[in-house]
Specification:
three-stranded antiparallel β-sheet
């Protein structure tokens, strides 16, 4: 295992089957207390949880879906994690090509188009979670693809996660 990967800890948290994330957030905070002890945290709505201590190298990232949340802690720097449970639906299939082109770039969109429709959702979810994990690793919000963004995000190492029950996820770290 490479040294950077040794500093990375990922925890899956079983949560309620609801889109309301309050209970999941409380469970995640409890996991972080268990992992980090008395390390003070800052949790602001709409922003990533972070260690309050100035100069800390500990990176934290969280992602939620109904029934599952993921927590990533990188003791050596920034980290991003993303989770998705793609559902097959006609609306979803119609949106995938546009989302892929606009946010994942022309190369990914072209590759996605080469898959049969039944496989497109899974490939899209894999590419999307990897992209979102990289964005979170840099503390960036979602923005449309452009070459400079792709170049910046390439500095992150990204790994797919093996998850149960149709969930797809990825973790990115530097």
């Amino acid at each position: 295992m490479d040294k950077k990967r040794q500093n990375l800890l990922i925890v899956a948290v079983n949560t309620e089957n609801t889109a309301i994330r309050d209970a999941a957030r409380q469970q995640v905070r409890q996991v972080l207390r268990e992992l980090l002890g008395d390390e003070p945290l800052v949790s602001t709505p709409g922003q990533a949880i972070r260690v309050a201590r100035p100069g800390s190298k500990i990176g934290i990232s969280v992602s939620h879906e109904a029934r599952l949340s993921l927590v990533a802690v990188n003791f050596a720097g920034p980290v991003g994690i993303d989770l998705m449970r793609p559902l097959a639906s006609a609306d979803w299939h119609e949106q995938i090509p546009t989302l892929a082109h606009d946010y994942l770039g022309p190369r990914v969109a072209q590759h996605l188009a080469s898959f049969p429709a039944a496989e497109q959702i899974r490939y899209f979810a894999e590419a999307w979670t990897q992209h979102e994990a990289r964005l979170k690793c840099f503390g960036l919000g979602l923005e449309e693809w452009h070459p400079a963004l792709a170049e910046r995000l390439s500095a992150c190492r990204v790994e797919p996660l093996t998850l149960p029950g149709g969930y797809i996820g990825a973790v990115a770290y530097r």
